[in-house]
Amino acid sequence: MSVTSPQAVQSREEPVYRPFHVEVRRAERLSPSFLRVTFTGELDDFADHGLDQRIKLVLPLAGEDPGYGFLDGTPDWFGAWRALADDRRNPLRTYTVRGLRRDPAELDVDFVLHGDSGPATRWANRVTPGDRLVVVGPNARCAGSTRALEWAPPPGADRLLLAGDETAVPAICSIVSALPPGVRGRVLLEVPDPGDALPLAAPAGVEVSWLPRPHGAAHGDLLIPAVAGAVRDLAAPAAPAPVDLEDVDIDTAILWESAAGEGGDGFYAWLAGEAGMVKTLRRVLVRDAGVNRSSVAFMGYWRLGRAEN
Fold first, then answer.
1. Rg of the chain's alpha carbons, rounded to an integer?
2. Name one GO molecular function term (predicted).
3. What is the pLDDT of residues 64-118, one digit of tens each?
């Protein structure tokens, strides 16, 4: 007869993601459009996966009460959040872990500053040291997988393409900083301002291009043709026959396709940003260039004119 230890039972019952109560240690303006906020708190159980690990920020309500009482005493933070009245439901936004350190315990999150219309941007524009926030992140005490990332190149992938708009910059920068030597590839980042070209160290064979968007230009005006050119340079010469893609209504559905992360010819692509732009990039790669869709991850991070959770 086997006996399960109390520690193992406790580990299995731990949630995959859990709320971490943190406070702002400092905020650093990186460029005209990017602000890095460094949080501190009880982060010992915050799992460190790097790359494009996603987290949720539970933003405070306006006023003196931030509205975090619903998190007390429940392991089902999301169910408790959904049960809140509309006027008492905290805004919830998805971000990327940009850095995690143990000593001292610090978590970096990069914000894109674009106007003052969204709750995350409003919070970031007014942030000061000592401000409190709740971050829902991967729980290191969970026995199962706590990864929430899409970067999954198959073994042997040595021709890489990463492309995105400003909302994908934190994830792309994190991925590039972890690339092994010897890979070849292109990194294409469309940003709002020439001053948004952040320092980014990449392997010798990886070319990084910052594409400042002209005033009044649409998302993707620079990125889409740049990606088309990069695919011609990086994809296998004998690409498979073009295929028809099912249409995705980005006004009613989330455009999000994970790469299979297996097989392939050594080419792998990761593309993220505004959903309309990503839909076009999907067509450019899979339909027009004939790239195997199992070799590409497409993520519509946000939709122009819509708030996303």
1. 20
2. oxidoreductase activity
3. 999 999 999 888 999 999 999 999 999 999 999 999 999 999 999 999 998 777 8
What are the residues facing 39 on neighbouring strands?
24, 107
Instruction: Give every CB contact of residue 138 below 8 A, 6+ residues apart in sequence.
Output: 16, 17, 46, 47, 49, 53, 55, 146, 147, 148
Q: How far is CA 101 from the centre of its chain?
A: 19
Confidence of residue 10 (pLDDT cuts 50, 70, 90): very low
pTM of the model: 0.90
3-state DSSP assignment of residue 224: helix
Q: Pick from 269, 192, 266, 260: which is nearest to 236 by CA? A: 266
Longest pairwise C-alpha distance within the chain: 71
Please give the domain boundaries of the chain with CATH numbers for all domains: 17-138 (2.40.30.10), 159-302 (3.40.50.80)
Asked whether 280 and 252 are in contact (CB, 8 A), the reply is no
The C-alpha angle with vertex 207 and arms to 202 and 208, in degrees rounded to 5, equals 75
